[in-house]
Structures are given as C-alpha cells and as structure tokens.
C-alpha cells in the first residue's frame, strides 16, 4: 500500500468561523488511509469523529489544511465537483439510515444514481440485484418505513453501493442494532472488504472495535488524534 | 441528449413518487387547481366569443335611436316628432318603433313585445325560441295573456323565430301594430322610440348633434357608443364571476403557497439526504421544478379543455345561474368559438408560473445548504 | 463488487413517470384538439350569425338577450338615462345581473339634459 487513498494534512474544521459561537471540531489532524482497508474512528461523543468523517467523505470542506482523494486535492474543489466525486467514489451509510420515507426500498436504492441519467430499467435491475444480494428482494416494493431496523440498514448499504463506489463511509453503523444484527453488519463489511472496498466507519461499540476486522483504529479526543494504530 | 432525457425522466419519477405519498392531498390540490382554471377559462372563452358575436350582430343595429325624455325619464314619442325629424339635414330614413315589456305570471318571465310591419295576420304572433321553451308551445298553439288593463287577449302562435338568431330573439314576441296597441292600450299615433338612418355614416355625430339641438327633450343613442359600451361590458377582466372568484382565488393562493412554500421539516431533511448521496443543487431544483410544472400544467390543460367543452359544447350551462338571475328565460346560444391566443397564453402563464415559482423558491434555500448537515443533525 | 446474479425481474414495475407523462401528453393533445375543434365549430356556426344579423337589421334590434329580469338588463343601451341609479347612486342592485353592468356611459353623448347636473 504505497499511495494512501485518502490523505489529510493539517486539517482544521471550524463551525461558525469568526462568530462568537465559533467552534473548532477538528483541530489540525493529519491522517492517511490506505486503499482496501477497514478503518475505524473512535472516541467519545463530541470528539469530532463524525466531522472527520464528513471531511473524509467530501461532504464538507475543511476550514484549513488539505484533503487528497487518490492524487486529487479536493480541499478547494467547488461544490459541483465535490458532488460528482462523492457520487462516483463514495457510498454513505448514515447513523439514522436516512432513507426517504414513503418510497419503496428499490426506489431508495436507486436514488443516488438518478442524476447520472441511466435508463430506468437498467437502474431498477441493478437495484434489484443489490437487494437480492442483501436478502431483501421480497421487500423491494415495500415502503422503507415498513422494514425492520436491520432491513433498513441493509437498504441503506445497498443504496451506498448502487453507483459502485470504491470507498464506503459508515457513521455509527451499529448504534441502532442489536448484537445479532451488528454481527450480521460486520459480516457484510467483511464481504465488501473482500470485494476490494475501502471502508471508513465511526464507532464506539466494542463489538465493532474488538471484532478483529478493523485494520486500523484511530482514536480522537477534542478534535485531535490521540492514538492511530 | 439521451442522458439528459433519462435524467429528467428519473427526476420526474422521484417527483411522482414523492407526490404519491400524500395522494389525497396532491389530488385535492390538483382538483382545486383544475376547478379554478376551469372557471377562469370558461369566463374568458365565453365572454370573448360573446363579445365578438355581439359586435358582429350589433353592427347592423340602428345607427341612431331617438327617445323622448320627460323629467329625465323615457316617455312616448309625441306625434310632432315624426314630422320634425325628417326635416333635419342628413337624415336618410326614420322608422318609428313600437315595443315594450310584458311580464308573464304563468312562467314568471319577462318578454319583449315588438310590433313589426311584416308581422303575421291579426291575432297571430311570432315568438322567440327561449320563450317557446319556457311556455312549452309550438306553432298553432294558443296563448292567452291578461294584459295590463285586465282584459284577456288570446293569440295564435304563427311560428317560432329561427333558433340560430337566439342571441337576439330569445324573448321576442312579434305582432302586428294593431294587436300591439290593443294589447297594451297604447295611445294611437305615439311610438316607443325612433330608429334613424343617416345619409352619410361619417356624419352620424353631426346629425345627432343637430337633432338634439332641434329636439332638446330627446335622447339620442348612437350605435357606435352602444358597441363601445358592449365591448367594455364583456371585457374579460370584468365580470361578476371574476369578482366572486377572486375570494376563492385568494384562498387557493394561500393554500398553494402554504403547501408549496411551507417546506416541511421532513422535506428539508429529504433534500439534505439527496444532496448527501450525490444530488447536485441543480438536480434538487430540477426535481422541484418538475413537481410544480407537472401539477400546475396538468391543472391548466385539464381546466382549459373542460372549459372549452363547457362553453362551446354545453353552451356555458354553468353560467346559467349567474346570467339568469331571477329570470326564467335563458338564451341558449351556440357561439362561434373565438379564441385569442394571447388570452390563452396569459391564462397559462398566470396559472402555471406562480405555482411553479412558489414551489421552487423556498426549496432554493434548502437545496443550497451544506450536504454534511444531514450527518450533523 | 462480487458479480451479483442477474435475473430478469419477475414483475419489474413500469416507472410511474411513464403513466404521468402519458397522461400529460394526452392532455397536451386534447389541448391542441380544442383549437382544431374551435376552428371546426367556427366554420360550422359562423353562417348562423346571419340569422341574427338579418333579424337585427329588419327589426332594428339594439341589444342581445342576455338577461331579461329588468329593462335595464334586457336593453342596457335603451334604458332610462339613470336606470342604473334608479333610487340612489349607491343602491345595491336587486338582480345579480345588475352588478355585471357598469353605469351607463350615455352621459358622453351630445346631451344637454344629461350634463345639466
């Protein structure tokens, strides 16, 4: 693993910069994440895990410092290019799953591909294949709010994969799952890793951190890296 | 190009699915919207066609009508007028007219009685189509009326006026001069008013001025003035329906604004999700554009098509209560459609544009928020 | 990604936008058809206007029959000078049709008696 896939250099993120309620969430982090690894960010709440994840996933731009994805410096890219990059290279699994209520599981999975303008039939088939892979084919037409928590998360993962990204970002993926479902989730991550995906997640769940699946665990506190194994 | 089309299709797909979630509400909005367009378009098509038709027909009405005024009120034409008018310069022809109103208590309708030179024989009348319908009479039937002096007069219906002339003849009763005078006890030698034709059409105003100087107690009604008044009368921006409707319109505008602009927290969250998973601001706005355009476009198209059928095939049946008031006779005229493309375009813009903008504008702010908001909340 | 087994879906739903756009296209067609219909009806009905014109010219008619409940509605152009203000300038009209009519414009005519006040 010579060239890191994601590289942060002296990255700071300050919210409400210049105002009395300014708040620095990330305070000068340098970090390199290699291709094809599973990395976990851990730390108490308020330590900046999620903010760091948004910076890694190009959801937000740093206030200062550099972010590189592959050989591209993305810290200064305009929003439109960031969006395109996000669409092509990242899949997101949010803590609350963030599925669109009222839409069927299949429609939810297809959503990230809509702006690409492929024919509906092609997308629909691809979404169906992903749902089958995650044992959800029979629920494809059900509105997502009818699904159980575990099913919803699998829909969220399927959605993250519809554009075939190489990096998967997951925020507290096991926070809303019981032990059995959490183990099932780890099993899925192992499969995706075997497919060659790079995975970055945040967690403070020992079940995840001690699973032995993590290649790398980065511990954060007060917006700084205190330990990066 | 293909990709672009596909993308719009997919954005529409999302819009349709999103609208489908609140099916009753979306359908209700669509129906209300359609109804508003329907009424507006009906008024527009009806008045425009009517105005054109009236202008075509009234162009053949008398150039000048002369009334006699007593104390500011319409009175009978005194006998000496009939001698004085033809002496005025520029008068080509003078036709004294005999006409009046009669209230028929049987069907509670008002008729216009008119004496004509070429009337049917004494005791016979020609009647207008609307009144024939109201009384349910056919040629050959007898009609008995109790005249204003209490005497009962019986007439034979000699015929019914051409249904194609219903715009002008719906309530007419045509009879001979002797019958007219007998029925109304009308003083011999006096007339209701006088229709005057002038020698040179461009001199109408001058002739009218001379007449009013010669006959200071006369009132002159010029065809041009009447035509202009009717044109203003049917101006599509006026009219009671629009006035009544403005209240409904306002209510609807508030409803639409509330629905469209009150971006619910749920919707705001969805826009955040879409942005996080890779939609551009433009994609979100295009999706919202389709929502507004499809909904208001559908409402406009269906409302207009329904209005066309209503006005030109059902003879504007729903205007009946408004036009008819407390009267009984309702003329049923098949107007030749006259469509002003500019009016249709105005209506389209007035209905489609504001709603689309109302949907789009509040979305703008939500769509330009940072995509990481969804992670932070 | 592991190649997912591709199977034709048992019942792939036709996208909803197909229906919506289909209905929309049908509406546009109907909208266009109203103009064709209007042209057809105009050609068919225009000759009928001659009947009204002939009657108007023969009898010297002055007003179309739109409302018949009062003489200033039946013959707005022939009504009394102040018919629209019979009792008081701000009086409410008894008949709904009365509210359709603006006050008569006859004051503009060469009319000494009308301009006297």
TrEMBL record, chain B:
GO terms for biological process: lipoprotein localization to outer membrane. One of its GO terms (cellular component) is plasma membrane protein complex. Its main location: membrane. The keyword Secreted does not apply. Residues 262-371 form the ABC3 transporter permease C-terminal domain. The chain crosses the membrane at residues 27-46, 236-257, 293-313, 344-367. Coiled coil: none annotated. It is a multi-pass membrane protein. Keywords: Cell membrane, Membrane, Transmembrane, Transmembrane helix. This is ABC transporter permease. It comes from Pseudothauera lacus.
């Amino acid at each position: 693993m010579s060239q890191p896939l994601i590289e942060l250099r002296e990255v700071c993120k300050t919210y409400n910069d210049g105002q009395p309620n300014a708040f620095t969430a990330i305070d000068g982090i340098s970090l390199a994440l290699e291709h094809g690894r599973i990395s976990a960010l851990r730390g108490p709440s308020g330590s900046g895990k999620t903010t760091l994840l948004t910076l890694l996933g190009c959801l937000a731009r740093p206030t200062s410092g550099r972010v590189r994805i592959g050989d591209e410096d993305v810290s200064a890219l305009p929003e439109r290019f960031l969006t395109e990059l996000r669409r092509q290279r990242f899949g997101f699994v949010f803590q609350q799953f963030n599925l669109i209520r009222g839409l069927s599981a299949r429609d939810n999975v297809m959503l990230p591909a809509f702006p690409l303008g492929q024919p509906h039939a092609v997308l629909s088939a691809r979404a169906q294949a992903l749902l089958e892979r995650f044992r959800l084919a029979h629920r494809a037409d059900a509105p997502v709010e009818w699904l159980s928590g575990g099913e919803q998360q699998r829909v969220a993962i399927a959605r993250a994969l519809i554009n075939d990204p190489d990096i998967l970002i997951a925020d507290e993926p096991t926070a809303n799952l019981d032990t059995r479902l959490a183990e099932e989730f780890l099993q899925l991550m192992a499969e995706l890793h075997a497919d060659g995906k790079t995975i970055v997640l945040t967690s403070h769940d020992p079940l995840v951190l001690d699973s032995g699946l993590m290649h790398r665990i980065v511990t954060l506190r007060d917006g700084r890296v205190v330990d990066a194994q | 190009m293909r990709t672009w089309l596909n993308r719009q299709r997919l954005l529409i797909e999302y819009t349709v699915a999103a609208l489908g979630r609140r099916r009753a509400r979306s359908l209700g909005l669509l129906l209300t919207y359609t109804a508003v367009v329907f009424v507006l378009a009906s008024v527009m098509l009806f008045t425009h066609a009517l105005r054109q038709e009236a202008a075509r027909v009234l162009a053949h009405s008398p150039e000048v009508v002369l009334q006699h005024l007593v104390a500011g009120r319409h009175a009978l034409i005194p006998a000496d007028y009939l001698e004085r008018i033809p002496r005025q310069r520029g008068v080509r022809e003078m036709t004294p007219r005999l006409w009046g109103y009669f209230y028929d208590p049987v069907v509670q309708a008002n008729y216009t009685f008119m004496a004509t030179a070429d009337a049917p024989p004494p005791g016979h009348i020609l009647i207008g189509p609307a009144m024939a319908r109201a009384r349910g009479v056919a040629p050959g039937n007898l009609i008995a009326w109790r005249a204003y002096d209490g005497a009962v007069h019986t007439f034979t219906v000699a015929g019914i006026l051409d249904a194609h002339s219903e715009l002008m003849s719906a309530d007419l009763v045509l009879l001979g001069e002797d019958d007219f005078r007998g029925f109304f006890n009308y003083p011999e030698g006096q007339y209701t008013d006088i229709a005057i034709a002038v020698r040179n059409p461009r001199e109408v105003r001058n002739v009218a001025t001379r007449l009013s100087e010669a006959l200071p107690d006369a009132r002159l009604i010029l065809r041009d003035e009447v035509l202009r008044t009717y044109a203003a009368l049917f101006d599509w921006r006026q009219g009671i329906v629009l006035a009544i409707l403005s209240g409904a319109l306002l209510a609807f505008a508030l409803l639409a604004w509330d629905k469209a602009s009150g971006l619910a927290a749920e919707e705001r969250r969805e826009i955040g999700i879409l942005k996080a998973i890779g939609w551009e601001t433009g994609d979100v706005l295009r999706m919202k554009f389709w929502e507004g355009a499809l909904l208001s476009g559908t409402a406009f198209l269906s409302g207009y098509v329904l209005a066309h059928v209503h006005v030109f095939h059902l003879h504007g049946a729903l205007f009946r209560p408004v036009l008819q008031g407390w009267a009984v006779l309702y003329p049923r005229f098949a107007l030749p459609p006259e469509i002003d493309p500019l009016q249709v375009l105005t209506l389209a813009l007035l209905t489609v544009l504001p709603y689309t903008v109302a949907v789009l504008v509040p979305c703008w702010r939500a769509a330009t928020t940072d995509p990481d908001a969804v992670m932070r909340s | 990604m592991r190649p997912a087994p591709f199977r034709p879906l048992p019942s792939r739903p036709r996208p909803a936008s197909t229906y919506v756009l289909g209905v929309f296209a049908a509406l546009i067609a109907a909208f266009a058809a109203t103009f064709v219909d209007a042209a057809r009806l105009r050609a068919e009905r225009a000759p009928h206007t001659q009947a009204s014109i002939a009657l108007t010219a023969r009898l010297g008619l002055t007003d179309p029959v739109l409302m018949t409940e009062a003489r200033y509605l039946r013959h707005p152009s022939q009504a009394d000078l102040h018919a629209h203000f019979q009792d008081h300038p701000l009086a409410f009209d008894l008949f709904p049709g009365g509210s359709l009519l603006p006050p008569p414009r006859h004051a503009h005519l060469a009319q000494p008696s009308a301009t006297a006040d």
